[in-house]
Queue: 2 jobs
Job 1
Amino acid sequence: MAQSSLDALLKGSSGRNTRGLLRILILCTIAAAAVSSRLFSVIRFESIIHEFDPWFNFRATKYLVQNGFYSFWDWFDDRTWHPLGRVTGGTLYPGLMVTSGVIYHILRFLTIPVDIRNVCVLLAPGFSGLTALAMYLLTGEMAPSPSAGLLAAAFIGIVPGYISRSVAGSYDNEAIAIFLLVFTFFLWIKAIKNGSIMWGALTALFYGYMVSAWGGYVFITNLIPLHVFVLLCMGRYSSRMYISYTTWYALGTLGSMQIPFVGFLPIRNSDHMSALGVFGLIQLVAFADFIRSFLPGKQFQKLLTYMVFLTFGLAFTGLIALSATGVIAPWSGRFYSLWDTNYAKIHIPIIASVSEHQPTAWPAFFFDLNFLIWLFPAGVFVCFQKLKDEHVFVVIYSVLASYFAGVMVRLMLTLTPIVCVAAALALSCILDNFLVMSTPKGAAQAKANGNESKSLRSGRNPLVGIYSYFSKAVVTGSVTIYLLMFVAHCTWVTSNAYSSPSVVLASRLPDGSQFIIDDYREAYYWLRQNTPDNAKIMSWWDYGYQIGGMADRPTLVDNNTWNNTHIATVGKAMSSREEVSYPILRQHDVDYVLVVFGGLLGYSGDDLNKFLWMVRISEGIWPDEVSERAFFTARGEYRVDDQATPTMRNSLMYKLSYHNYQSLFPPGQAMDRVRGSKLPTETPQLNTLEEAFTSENWIIRIYKVKDLDNFGRDHSNAVAFDKGLKKKRAAKKRGPPILRTE
Amino acid sequence: MKLWGPLFFLLSVVSGVLSAESSRNKFEKYHSLSRSAPVDLNSASYEELVSAPRDYYAAVILTALDARFGCLMCREFDSEWDLISRSWNRGPKPDGVNVIFGTLDFDQGKTVFQKLMLQTAPVILMFPPTVGPFAKVDGDPLRFEFTGPISADQLYSWISRHLPEGPKPPLVRPINYMRIVSVITVLMGVVSLFTVLSPYVLPIVQNRNLWAAISLIAILLFTSGQMFNHIRRVPYVVGDGRGGISYFANGFQNQFGMETQIVAAIYAVLSFATIALALKVPRMEDVKGQQLAVLIWTTVLFGTYSFLLSVFRAKNAGYPFFLPPF
């Protein structure tokens, strides 16, 4: 009885419905797992925005929600980049803010009282659920069996490579961009399979959304044309391809030009030229295809091949000529540094200084992808078996993205989706064969299909199946072990590495209890409550967004890094002597200087460790006044102790970091726990600034810039006078140093 | 007694004029030696060129070109130096600014190297004028340090920074016609070779197995951190201090060249085992053979993955997961 009812459930049309229902249930479960595994940080700490960039996005979203879309579009922000300001509305990708604004207004409309902060914090986990769905659809287009799609959805749901950028609170462009990336690719595959204008237009629509959301849209802009180009070279031109590509290109380019930040880049910038070139090429090929109907086949084949090569050559030389004459802007620096890997280090230190632009060592791949990393090549191999149009896409994407991920750590994010697709293809191939209960009835059953001569060697024989239950059990068992380990690995990595807000640091006390280090917020709230509303804060650019978001004070430079000279000015002020720095501080109306110092706690991400980048960046602008060499000892060491060079010890950054630090220790015992060195006994003498605030663990130190002396004295004289050293100074005859140089 | 003052003044004026005269002659003399390329110097002429009364700038490279000194940077930079000198001498210069470019090879100027106590080469010294409108108070030379391989553009911007304001000739790299011609020839050769050989080459180019192999190798190389090696120039292997070699670098952000190759090999074995299980085994018709193949490949997969996990644990001390054998 039970047997027959089960039969009724699993066979025929009701069986299909049951399976559909199961699939929906599984997908919902995966989405729920994806969302909940990203909530570690909210549960451990609180609902808080993380890191640096998200603070700006959060601030912009608040502005959008309060002032409406049009004033957001025209927003000129005078509280950043003092005294320049920033045309914020025209220099950001608005997709993220608009998305959360829309969600916020919908929830309000449904009378759900929700704070905009919670919308922002939970946006990334919410979209990761959608990514899992999009991944199911994309993989479903690649493989006949729906199990591959479900596996891929499960993989992308919990893989650390994606979680790293989408935990709750990590309110960054990537939060929605990966969903858009995967979904755009799904629509593109759909379009090229069906050759329908509708799918092409939908691709363009989501491409436009992607352009509005993330600068990484250039990846799509280049990958789709490359796919088409490779298909053309393989001689697979079809009207389906023509329809879908031209629809996508025309509508997508128009759509992307609506974003003010992108503007006319799609027709002027070299990053976008491949799309334009392939657009022209496909017109020629379509024309050639038209001619084919009038020519005998053999001649035509030749004509086509030559035309492909000729046009490619012509377009390439044309591109070079136009770039050389300056009609087309040269490659943008970030993009260029992907190909010439030493370019950034020499020409744009500000790009090279960002830690997520460093190359990737192999443990990072394994850390972020676990066993998917070795299923990945197998999955690509499986794609070569049938090698339909969509499989070509997987292959191109895999090779390109793994190159990019090797060059830059942050591009691991673009590699992750295709790794999930390929790994799911390989694993479903195994499971589909080994999870079949029935045993094949000998060689007689071998079918004669799938015997194309073009196919790969390993796939040439007909599919038979697995005979013994023992083999099935062994393989299924070991795969289950790997899958369980994958889940354990992802949970461990997420909870240990990717769930710290980095605004709040957590450490463990000797008894094992958690100890929260909350210096950043302590200092920012001090600024908010104790300084005038328009006090200008100078700090290294890493902290600009946080100061703007949490302390609500104007800053000189921030993480937008659009003006290298302004950043170099701050770097010069930090790396020069006080006599040089003070005029710079005065000229820029600086009221407070904020430095991050980890010496007491052993917090390695502090300003002294970033100091060399400040020196390098300012050396790029003022090579005569700042020299990196002068910060290294004769033996080429970067030291902060007795052996430190005079330039180092007189630099403002050094003084601000160690000012009064020696008083914490018994004489001669002062230790810097980050750099592991003993400090000089004497504390650095600070003349032009005075300590205003130091946080509990000394991570943040804030100094007030002194006003000009009331008696018109030089600051060092005034300090010497206060200390009672006047006679020693008075004995020397010296003209009063001029304070203001300009 | 009163006469002495004006006389002294007169004398000093005359001597100043004379010295200016002699330094003008000096400039003409060295400038005529070589109109565009840098002047080849020896110890004596170097001393004369940089001696005190001079109304010109002198930029001298102290280098060691001979092969037995093994100074790769000297030889690489020699052509760049030549380029700078030629560019300067060809273009329009600000009025009254004269620059002599000189090359002092170690073979010709041992005494100069000893006097300056130079241990390294190349070094670039730039002497500002001591008389004339651009004279500097102290005639001490400026010194350019080579911190690594450097292009003429960087040095040229350094030099022109230390020259007086004014329009300066741009650095012009001569067009390398030889290279253009050779590139075009090679391209045409390749195209015609391809056309002639296409019946034999096309099957290879269109071979799916070949492309699969290329893609897989590329992916394995990239995902095992080969680009990191290329960018950071990591050592291939490093001794462990006890006479052996350590195959794996300490720390999560470090790796050696050989380490990445081992990892790539591990990945390759794992992938191949997966491919065998997914594609080959279900196509075997022999019952016993299939059973055996399943066992072998599953064991290989399990053992290699266990080894990979143990390697990863060694790199990342806090990692809690492992599989039995290793």
Job 2
Amino acid sequence: MGERLRKYGFVAGFLAVPVTLYVVFVISPYIQAFQLSLTGWNGISSVVTYVGLDNFARLVRDEVFWQALRTHGITLLVLPLVTIAIALVFAFLLNLGGGSRGAGMAGVGGSAFYKVVFFAPQVLAVAIVGVLWKQIYRPDENGVINGALVKLGMEPVGWMSEPETALWALLAVMVWQAVGFYVVLFSAGMAAIPKDYFEAAMLDGAGRVRLFFTITLPLLRDTLQVAWVYLGIAAFDCFALVNVLTVDAGGPDGATTVLPVEIFKNFFSYSKVGYASAMGVALFFLTITFAVLTLRVTRREKIEL
Amino acid sequence: MTHPGELTRRDLLRRIGLTAVVVGPGAGLLSACATGGGSQPSAAPATTAGGVATSPANPFGVDAKKPLEVTIFSGGYGDAYAKDIHEALYAKKYAGAQIKHNATQNIGTQLRPRFLSGDVPDVVNNSGPEALDLAALAAEGHLADLTALWDAPSADDPAKKVRDTITPAAITNAKLNGKDLVLNYSVSHRALWYNAKLFAAKGWTVPRTWEEFKALGETAKKEGIHLFAYPGQKGPYYQLWNMLYTAAKIGGNQVIVDIDNLVEGAWKSEAVKASLTAWLEIQTGYSDKSYLGLDHTQTQIKHLQNKVLFYPVGSWIENEMAKDKPADFEYAIAPVPSVTAADKMPYEAIQVGVGEVFFVAAKGKNPQGGLEYLRLMLSKEGARGFTEKTKNLTVVNGAAEGLDLPPGLMSAAKAQDAAGANIITDARFEGWYKPLFDYATQQTNSLMGGRISVEEFMDKVQRKADEIKADSSVTKQTRDA
């Protein structure tokens, strides 16, 4: 009995500080945000009036809210798919693409160098990425892409100022920035796959493509699932990029706006704290729903190695 | 005048740092004290009688022993003018008074919790992208009434009241919910800005009519210069201002007054229509769509490179671009050319507005000191120091006399003389109904990008204005003229 008590006391001692911090700085603000979403608070008034679900009714009628959801929806589909596909190909080439050399599998020549190159965007602050791509997408002949187009005798393209291209141009930046991290993540996953599986398959005459689809991919399932959830959650953010890169923060015509940007506007510029909180609550449920769905759908018996 | 575009750029990194706070778990933290009770709003305490006798030299009865806290928005103007000039004036007059100087770019983040808890700074320069909602502060009785300040003897001449030493627009723009509560300190001139040296070298004259404007556009086109451009990525509201001021020129200031008062159909007036149509013609015929994706700095640099002739902005542009300005560029202001021969205002009319808001906290520890600080700001010495530090004019009459002003400011002063009484008014819905202003800005880009027609623009913005009018949660403001 005393033994047990000592053990739990020991565990509790370690948990007390992090749990307290988490409750104070994460859980309690969430609860407050839920509470505030039911009010018409302006951020200053000492009288907080409860308006019931008015904020949510207004949200459903708000055109901008649906525009933001559309952006999140497209990002949610495209960002994980494209990022994971590219990262997988790179990771495979870097780790296993060179075939078997000596004792184990090796990547293509120069893979150590490529790893650094792929990871580089990951260490840049988002603001810097935004400024960098602003220069790349610059709509006149001074832009990196448009400079080349003009030299080739073509008309410059307003990548971020045309509603048709803005979201895709934004997604390209997000993919570019994310790929490096997932190359490393998948590389780690691949390193954990026992080498003899590959050797055995190769003895049986499997090529690189076959190796990838029948051995690498199934055994990376857990890592892929994690990547999908991470990228999905990233798709619900993109505040900084949208703010730096897009026309009039979320434009043109709201084509690239996202909920965090609208929350910021409503909270800081319009002092509509209650309404901004309602948006925050909507964002919270969207993120949670996505995470739960992903984990449910992809749940499966683990493959025992 | 605050220049939000500029703030955006400087604030960028900070704001991004804030992201986590807004979207993350901190969202509620900022407002942690919001729901924790709090007293009912009470009337502002009397701001006179601080226990020290009042005199013409000390009209509010400032107690030198009481500390004074000043919060300055350090954006385009910096905060040196407050620290080195205004606070020094106060410290000199009230020897031993402790002054706490606080400069920030995040007024809202810093001060919102303090207003909730009641521990407020005495003087606040409410500016920038996070400026506090003044109407909400006023409703809570946080803003000290400035009538006592207007009626106090001025710092330079005790025989003159403060209200007689400043431009009347400062008094009219002080009104909020019918009371004089805010001081707009700076004066700016808005119209089209061009390079006077380029015009002299080419032998061009500034166009006075829309026909001359377009003819110059044709001439410039042959030299590979665009007649006009505004920044679509950051700062598209410059073009919204421009179109509104042009509409006022065509139909008189009542056009803007009606828009501010949310009058039915105000956005669909003939003057608005004529202005939008005229500017759309300039944008499509004599500009380039690439500017719709450039920010204000990129566009202003192209202006400095003589790739654009006219740029719609205010007189702060000269100081803003001082570091990048080549020797063969000299900023000068040009009124917007007359759109029709029947325009209500003459060609010379330009917009002259007051801006850069200061207020005194009524429930602070030293409201008398706060009022006195504003009175010293409005002294000739205080105003002159501001102009020297920021190269921008103040509402104080004659304070810039004898100062060595840069050529752009001189041209603005001359343009104001030429305009005389024909001053285009400021559009106040920008501060009153920010969502409407932002929406109209967004639609400006759509209109200029050719995605919607003039009629669609007017319909959409009018609908938004009607929506705000019908929204009972929005405090309504009105103006007479």
